[in-house]
Amino acid sequence: MRLNPLTAKKLRRFRSIRRGYFSFLLLCGLSLISLLGELLVNSRAIVVRYEGKWYFPTYGDIIPGTTFGFDYSYETNYRDLRDRFRQEGGDNWLLMPPIAFNPYENTPYEGVFKPAPPSWLGGPAGHLLGTDTTGRDIFARLFYGFRVAIFFALAFTVLTYLVGITIGCLMGFFGGKVDLFGQRLIEIWSNIPFLYTVIIIFSVIPATFTVPVRIFILLVILVLFSWTGMTYYMRTATYREKARDYTAAAIVLGAGTGRIIFNHILPNTISTIVTFIPFTVAAAITSITALDFLGFGLPPPTPSLGELLKQGTQTLTTAPWIVSSAFAALVFILTLVTFVGEAVREAFDPKKFTTYE
Amino acid sequence: MIASPNGSSPTARSSASASTPSTVDAPLLEIRGLKVHFPVKGGIFLRAKASCRAVDGIDLTIHPGETLGLVGESGCGKSTTGKAIVRLVEPTDGEILFQGRNLAEIPRRQLKPVRREIQMIFQDPAESLNSRHTVANILEEPFIIHGIGDAEFRRKKALELLERVGLTAAAADRFPFEFSGGQRQRIGIARAIALEPRLIICDEPVSALDVSIQSQVLNLLLDLQREMGLSYLFIAHDLAVVKHISDRVAVMYLGNIVEIAGADEIYRDPRHPYTRALLSAIPEPDPRRKRKRIVLSGDVPSPINPPPGCPFHTRCPHVQEQCRIQKPALRTTTEGHEVACHFDL
């Protein structure tokens, strides 16, 4: 199977737009690194060598302190263990991740007022960007906040497009009454105020729901209120492709509805849809951050950029490192995504490559 | 059948050809009183306010191995007629009898077996070939749709088809837009003959091509007809092309057929005033031969509100009172020559 030369040309063109292409690589790299985040930003050691035995605490159950000779049976504090091993000097050693904090732990320090400033501004050692108002490491919060945001945005994009493309395509393909009533329903649906719905739904969800379930509910609500925009593009694109002779040729050959939609219409409409994807991702990141900022987004204690921004604005004068790092991170991510979007749009510009004369 | 008098034509049709239609043969396709009216919708509930009478009651027959040319100016309903036969548009009324079955009444889902028998070639091959598919995909699709053979068989068939229409096997893995217009139309023809149909609707198959390519494609169509015993409904507005390929020619005007005759006869002895005007518009290559150019006044009336009586009466130079009231039916003047006119002009 040979790649369609037009697609190959578009990809070549995308690669030649260096700003967008490198943003894309950087974003992909960051996302992949964030998947291995537990090895890089974590309070658990990567590997522990103790009394001739190997331990890999990163993934799996907690290892109680008693295992390493502490007098407590809750999870080992590996930073303490590291300090102890150093003092003892023996053969025991452990390797901590570069950032030795997880995003949920509050680390109290004697004589330091929370939030603690970054280590290079006289704060406690290890906190590159300081801590937030409850003493959690800001770098860890940002890192995991990025992971949550980017994968939330990707999941949101996939689901939104799935629903939007399906419904838009059906309206365009069947036309007539399906289209007429579908359009009216969409008009009504898209006028339901989104924010109120989120507030109402979150106020009735029982507190017993776990954090992943709450995140999933938020995702579903966001998708339910966002798919309508895509239907407009798909509807018109489907109308256009349906009227073309290649579709007629397929009908004359006896192709069924499924075959016409999936083999003929969708592949020809998708190329315009692709250009929207980065902008949808950017919009999703923005809206999840905004919701978090307002307090209706990801449930606490999920690390999130919006929640940090909220803290940061409340402590603007006393702890400027919170808002500045959260703001810089958000701007950085959105800029990357937007650069990718620009490059994709440029590379897929249909005016540059027409397949039909 | 009338032999083409066009001596310059590379494949002048022989009256001794095996595909000679005869009145004794049962017709392959018989259209009776076909009407295609498109509703003109309006208002918030899109109710039909009026109807556009694209095809307004026509009768046609096509015999096995015959080519029927269908000519007329744009908007006269000739393409709609072709599309109605393959049910790309729904006939409003009338019968489309194909091998004795009325295609106008068969539910869409049950049409699939008939699809193998009737295929279509489109005007613009750039539009009619999906640019996302390779040529092999395009030519294998008919077999996939009808569940014929395995992947290996389909690939073999696709290569055979390419060879048959004069393309090399190397074309198989390329995409339609990598070919010239004539080559693309050959691919479109290969797809149409893949299932070995009996009838092919050719909807202006050469009008999007360069003149130099047109005759190659026409000759390919004629060769295939001879080899496979195909019948063609050849829709065109280029009268020279129609003359070259057709056995009989039907002239359409405003959704009605105004004249049907053998291809040679209609060019030699047009009887309907519209046909005469149409034929007088063919450019004459010899400047010494002066011909009277019949220029019609006015425009074609709208098919949404066609004139009463004869559809042509608004522009006819010989119009009489009767023409404004009574619509003339097709009547046979001489053997095989039918005219829809009240008078012998």
The mean pLDDT of chain A is 86
Largest sheet of chain A: 3 strands, antiparallel
| Low-pLDDT sequence parts of chain B | 1-23
CATH class call of the largest domain in chain A: Mainly Alpha
Q: Determine Rg of chain A (CA atoms, Å).
A: 26 Å
Report the strand count of chain A.
3
Q: Compute the separation of the termini of chain A in Å.
A: 25 Å
Largest sheet properties of chain B: 8 strands, mixed
Q: What's the total helix number of chain B?
A: 11
Tell me the β content of chain A. under 5%
Element string of chain B (H = helix, E = strand): EEEHEEHEHHHHEHEHEEHHHEE
The tally of helices of chain A reads: 14
**Largest sheet: spatial strand order of chain A:** 2-1-3
Strand pairing plus helix content of chain B: what structural class? alpha/beta
Radius of gyration of chain B: 21 Å
Question: What would you say this structure looks like, in words?
Answer:
The complex is a heterodimer of chains A (357) and B (345). A three-stranded antiparallel sheet of chain A has the order 2-1-3, with helices on one face. In chain A, 35% of the residues are buried. Chain A has two domains: 43-96, no CATH class; 139-347, Orthogonal Bundle (MetI-like fold), CATH 1.10.3720.10. The model of chain A has no long low-confidence stretch (mean pLDDT 86). By secondary structure, chain A is an all-alpha fold. The longest helix of chain A is centred in the middle third of the chain and has 37 residues, at 138-174. Helix content of chain A is 61%, strand content 3%. Chain B has helices spanning 78-85, 112-115, 125-128, 135-145, 151-164, 181-193, 211-228, 239-245, 263-268, 273-280, 321-325, and strands spanning 29-42, 47-62, 67-71, 93-98, 101-102, 118-121, 199-203, 231-236, 248-253, 256-262, 331-334, 337-339. Residues 1-23 of chain B have low confidence and may be disordered. Chain B contains eleven helices and twelve strands. In chain B, a hairpin with a 2-residue loop joins β4 (93-98) and β5 (101-102). With 345 residues, chain B is of the alpha/beta class. Chain A binds chain B through residues 2, 4-6, 176, 180, 244-246, 248-256, 259, 263-264, 267-268, 355-357, and chain B through 45-46, 83, 86, 88, 111-112, 115-116, 118-120, 122-124, 126-134, 141-142, 145-146, 173, 175, 177-178, 188, 191, 195.
